[in-house]
């Protein structure tokens, strides 16, 4: 039960990476009560959140009535929709990647719309923060399309066009590539034993890199407490909007190894490794377009009213991140 003196934030995906970070940040603020939504309150991750002082409630993004209950009296909502929860098991069941992508896209968009419909009915709501990716297909004039980017930009469009009252209370966070994203970690060549990047873009390609565990919560707090609704933030760590030449140099410096870089195409890499085009085309897109191309009025971390303290990607690798990267 929330104390009447506290404001309530409802966190979707609280047992996951982004929502976990939002939960820890808001639990550390004395004026907030954190309500974590999960499909399974009995899970170890949900129980761990409860032991930290969060309220844990059962809700499923596929079930509108469960969301309406879970959002009751909320002042803020953090919404994350996950594409891969549906994509991975669908692929594993034997469907091809286009079929799997379509099914995961449809589920993600339905989930996002459900959350928006439920949020629109919450009279106490002051801020919804949705974690999205940019409008890849529109920004590239149809040249690139991946379902995991498309679902999130469809949800943003739905909020802006179909839920105008909710849109007035909403902000969007565009998290950069996670610091653990396979694109930003070199691989060992089993034949030569040497490390290098083989990627579907050039060394000039720029990636915003974020530590989603440390940084999502502080950036979301800024969007809830400091910034006006309607803010669109590209969130990345200090000094970590990097071209790939710099990423290679950082890895060389941190590991002391010679790290090579080879550019190829998404299709060639797919044929060589079996990594889904759904993932590789995201990289190829970034070789030609900015991460948040097509998002009007996007701001970057240095434009926030109050600075969010984050470590650079290099510092993160040096201070222990390297051990998580399997190299
Ligand atoms: N990797 C990157 O570089 C990168 C960069 C930017 C954005 N992203 C995006 O980040 C998203 C993943 O976020 P994450 O890393 O925080 O995910 P995560 O750690 O895998 O967690 C997924 C969360 O979603 C919740 N969830 C899944 N289905 C649900 C449903 N039907 N109803 C309610 N909750 C549900 C799960 O909660 P329960 O299991 O407890 O119900 C879990 O907490 C992806 O869509 C990805 O595209 C990734």
TrEMBL record:
UniProt-listed Gene3D superfamilies: NAD(P)-binding Rossmann-like Domain, UDP-galactose 4-epimerase, domain 1
Keywords: NADP
Family matches, as Pfam families: NmrA
Alphabetized PANTHER family for the sequence: NITROGEN METABOLITE REPRESSION PROTEIN NMRA FAMILY MEMBER (PTHR42748), NMRA-LIKE DOMAIN-CONTAINING PROTEIN (PTHR42748:SF29)
Residues annotated as domain NmrA-like: 6-297
Gene Ontology CC terms, in alphabetical order: nucleus
InterPro entries in UniProt: NAD(P)-bd_dom_sf, NmrA-like, NmrA-like_oxidored
Organism: Coniochaeta ligniaria NRRL 30616
Source superkingdom: Eukaryota
Entry similarity comment: Belongs to the NmrA-type oxidoreductase family.
Protein's recorded name: NAD(P)-binding protein
Keyword Plastid (UniProt): no
SUPFAM superfamilies, per the entry: NAD(P)-binding Rossmann-fold domains (SSF51735)
The UniProt record lists the keyword DNA-binding: no
């Amino acid at each position: 039960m929330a104390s009447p003196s506290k404001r309530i934030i409802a966190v979707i995906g609280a047992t996951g990476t982004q929502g976990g970070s939002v939960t820890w940040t808001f639990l550390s603020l004395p004026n907030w009560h954190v309500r974590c939504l999960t499909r399974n309150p009995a899970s170890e991750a949900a129980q761990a959140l409860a032991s930290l002082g969060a309220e844990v409630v059962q809700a499923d993004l596929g079930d509108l009535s469960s969301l309406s209950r879970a959002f009751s009296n909320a002042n803020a909502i953090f919404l994350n929709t996950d594409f891969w929860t549906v994509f991975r098991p669908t692929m594993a069941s034997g469907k091809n990647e286009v079929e799997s992508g379509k099914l995961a896209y449809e589920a993600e968009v339905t989930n996002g719309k459900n959350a928006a419909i439920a949020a629109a009915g919450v009279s106490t709501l002051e801020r919804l923060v949705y974690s999205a990716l940019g409008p890849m297909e529109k920004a590239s004039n149809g040249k690139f399309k991946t379902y995991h980017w498309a679902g999130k930009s469809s949800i943003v469009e739905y909020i802006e066009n179909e839920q105008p009252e909710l849109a007035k209370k909403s902000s969007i966070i565009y998290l950069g590539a996670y610091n653990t994203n396979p694109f930003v970690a070199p691989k060992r060549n089993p034949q030569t034993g040497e490390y290098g990047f083989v990627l579907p873009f050039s060394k000039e390609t720029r990636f915003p890199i974020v530590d989603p565990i440390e940084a999502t919560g502080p950036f979301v707090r800024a969007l809830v407490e400091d910034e006006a609704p309607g803010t669109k933030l590209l969130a990345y760590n200090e000094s970590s909007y990097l071209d790939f030449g710099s990423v290679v140099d950082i890895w060389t410096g941190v590991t002391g190894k010679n790290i090579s870089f080879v550019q190829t195409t998404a299709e060639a890499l797919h044929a060589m490794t079996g990594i889904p085009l759904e993932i590789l085309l995201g990289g190829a897109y970034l070789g030609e377009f900015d991460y948040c191309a097509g998002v009007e009025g996007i701001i970057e971390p240095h434009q926030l009213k109050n600075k969010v303290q984050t470590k650079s990607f290099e510092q993160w690798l040096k201070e222990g991140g390297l051990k998580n990267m399997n190299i």
